[in-house]
Amino acid sequence: NAGVMQNPRHLVRRRGQEARLRCSPMKGHSHVYWYRQLPEEGLKFMVYLQKENIIDESGMPKERFSAEFPKEGPSILRIQQVVRGDSAAYFCASSPRIGSGRTNEKLFFGSGTQLSVL
Amino acid sequence: AQKVTQAQTEISVVEKEDVTLDCVYETRDTTYYLFWYKQPPSGELVFLIRRNSFDEQNEISGRYSWNFQKSTSSFNFTITASQVVDSAVYFCALSEFSNQFYFGTGTSLTVIP
Question: Which of B83 and B101 is assigned the larger pLDDT?
Answer without folding.
Answer: B83
